[in-house]
Amino acid sequence: MLSEKRKIHFVGAGGIGMSAIAQVLLEMGHSVSGSDLEENPVTRKLSSAGASIFTGHRSENLPAGADVIVYSSSISKNNPEMSEAARRKVKVMHRAQMLGEIFNRKKGVAVTGTHGKTTTTSLVAVMLKNAGLDPTVLIGGEVKLFGGNARLGSGDYIVAEADESDSSFHHLKPYYAVITNIEMEHLDHFKNMANIRDSYRSFIRNLKKGGMVFYNRDDANISKVLLDFKGRRESFGFSRDADMHPEDIKMDGFKTLFRCVYKNKTLGTVRLSIPGEHNVLNAMAAILVGMDMDLSFKTISKAIKDFDGAKRRFELRADADGVMLIDDYAHHPTEISAVLNACRNWKKKRVIAIFQPHRYTRTKLLADEFGRCFSGVDKLILTDIFPASEKAIEGVSSKMIYDRVKKSGVRDVVILGKDDIAGYVMGIKKPGDMILVLGAGDIKNVANELSKMISGGGSCGPDGSVVRELKRSVKGEIRVREDLRRRTSFKIGGPADLWVEPEDARNLRKAIAFARSRNIPYFIIGNGSNLLASDEGFKGMIIHLGAEAFRNIRIDGVKVRVGAGFGLPRLVRIACEKGLAGLESMVGIPGTVGGAIYMNAGGYANPIYGNIGSAVESLKVLDSSGRIRRLKAGDLNFGYRTSNLGSNIILEAVLKLEKGESKNLIESSLRFLKMKKEKHVLDMPNAGCVFKNPKGFHFTCGQMIDTLKLKGKRIGGAEISPKHANFIVNKDGASYKDVMDLVGFIRKKVKDSYDIDLELEVKVI
After folding, report:
1. Which of 77, 96, 291, 589 is the least crowded, having the fewest Cβ atoms under 10 Å away?
2. DSSP assigned state of 583
């Protein structure tokens, strides 16, 4: 099929296995396109290599004239691109089938097993490359020495990781098969161990004539699979009964040394740059493969000496101030035990393990094993189960593991949400700690965050000592690397180095003094309803007035004394219910009272108050010198979407309203809300009106943009709302760059047509 150039489309191109196949096909000269729900490093790499990659799944992603569509097991048959392929009668292939099309053309080395596939495949690939055999390689992990997870070679050999999880490795016809181990796994597919062993027997029956099996002699299940196998085989293991076994194993940090003994003959010393006894087994498997290819032991040992692992396989992500951060894909009890065993190379370090269970079925079936495998951990942090493609199972949660771990003797165990883990760890870490991040799901994002923090990323250098000192100085909630997507109505932005919610005005003053004394930039935020945050996040301190002290309210006649952190929608509702008029046109504005006053927010034209500033009788503020002052109406100057408050931070406001009929006010607010729903955008992430209306011009910004027929214009995930042209909506995972590119586009069009320089109403941080 691949003898001629094809147009091949990948649904789920961001998967590590899918991207490897796509990369090799690109290098072979085929036209490659693909899609995935989110952009990630491998999709970006494919794009830079010449593939057309789309974010999101849509029928129109399937290119005209496509010859083949490739999908992975995680893709639903109802996927719009799959449906479009069926409609056009485009050939559809599972990922493993396409891998077979590539793999079976050469002399293949297929590595499979419950654990160790990626590392063993990587060792074999590096060995062949460094020995000058120029192999083609497809791996389920990124190898630093390759700069990726795939390469097209001109040699006779191809090396690939063979996925046993759904029996898709049956599509491969290897010359060499390596089986690292066989355990109870993927029971959602296999149901029992007998079926697992049968699947491996079918895999072995696919060996090409003259081929060979290399297997772990210590594994009883592999021995059962090979009972009736008549072909060539050689074994490795710790047992002296194995064809190859190690002696005199020594470990020192990331270095591992052992004497390699083959059929009772000592070949020499093997030096590895990866830790753990499990990697001794992986190395011996690679050595056996190389020896059958007639490579000398000297060539092999030299070739694998500098291999320093694949990404997320005991990967050192940070090492600073005496703290090591290790990231590992381990998600099965056996794998976790192997990682913790490797940690014992660093005898005096306190081990803090962070674990995200992977799949409900695995958690349910192996809960007892998970309870036992964390022996030796000083502190364990669990988070919610990563479901993969599974539906939740009633009664199955991380609490199952928590209970069993506690029962097995690990005393210090907590369950946290993923978003809270990094800040928590930074608050408790100390020199001499080893922090492990374990799991096969999106827990890798926590490793990414911690890596930046421990390495000192960010202008405030979110160092543990800084965080601890801040916590000693300021009472309130303090978080590190808080995701601003969670804190803004636009749902855009990277993390803030520091997120501080002071307990009261006194601690607000302390937080600001702390930031100033260390030259840390700071910014006061309300509900984040008119903010656009950079994808890089905020390199400083975000202060949020969310504590109870800033959310008080007291009504005395027509006067309302209300804290700056009080939600404006709630205030409008209370005022209407109490028969107080003047705020009902502001219904639907999602900000806080403080933010609304600072920006002099307004609603539709109102016979009483057009903007909230008109209702302000006085404000209590914290000024730039740290003094608390009371500003009266005469001290204040409110303009269109602006005020003269400058660096003053609003703590509390006194609003003077008018008496009205509660029923009429509620009906009025509902009419305003209906009008906003019809004309504004309340159902998609946005930051309100993007531009201020130009002074003295007969058109509003929305009317100008609408007249230019720009509604619906889209850049990346950002779109000019089809409903209100002065709104940009986060349509599909928009980035800061997407929005700013669209802002620049609008400004140019308006400048060219109306000679007006539009001013942003949205605050950019």
Report:
1. 77
2. -
pLDDT band at 276; cut points 50, 70, 90: confident
- Please state the length of the chain: 765
Query: Is residue 575's pLDDT more than 60?
Result: yes
Catalytic residue chosen out of the listed positions 81, 161, 335, 369: 161
Say if residues 136 and 102 touch (Cβ distance below 8 Å).
Answer: yes
Mean pLDDT, to the nearest integer, of 458-473?
Answer: 67
d(CA 326, CA 333): 17
Q: What is the CATH number of domain 7-94?
A: 3.40.50.720
27: which residues sit within 8 A by CB, 6+ positions away? 49, 151, 152
Q: Any idea which fold 464-544 has?
A: 3.30.43
- From the CB of residue 417, how many other CB atoms can be counted at a distance below 10 Å? 9
Rounded to the nearest 10 degrees, the angle between the axes of helix 277-292 and helix 333-343 is 100
Whether 605 shows a pLDDT value over 50: the answer reads no
Sign of torsion, CA 439 440 445 451?
A: positive
Q: Is the C-alpha dihedral spanning 643, 649, 654, 660 positive or negative? A: positive
> Residue 109 in contact with residue 129, Cβ under 8 Å?
no
Domain 682-764's class?
alpha beta
The answer to whether the beta carbons of residues 91 and 67 sit under 8 Å apart is yes
Helices (H), 57-169: 80-88, 95-103, 117-130
Which residue's entry shows tokens 């491996």?
200
CATH number, domain 315-454: 3.90.190.20
The answer to whether the beta carbons of residues 585 and 680 sit under 8 Å apart is no
117 is an active site residue: yes
Residues of the chain with CATH 3.30.465.10: 551-675
Query: Which residues is 33 bridged to in the sheet?
Result: 9, 52
- Cα distance between residue 108 and residue 502, in whole Å: 62
In the set 117, 349, 676, 731, the catalytic residue is 117
Mean pLDDT of the chain: 86
DSSP designation for 63: -
* Cα 271 to Cα 287: distance, rounded to the nearest angstrom: 12
Q: What is the pLDDT of residue 609?
A: 41
Place of tokens 């958690």: 363
Instruction: Classify 522 as helix, strand or coil.
Output: strand
Percent of the chain with pLDDT over 90: 37
What six digits make up the tokens of 181?
Answer: 């181990």
Q: Please tell me the predicted confidence (pLDDT) of residue 456.
A: 61
- Of 118, 119, 136, 180, which one is the catalytic site residue? 118
CB 420, CB 449: distance < 8 Å:
no
Hey, which bits of 90-180 come out as E strands?
91-94, 107-112, 136-143, 148-151, 157-161, 176-179
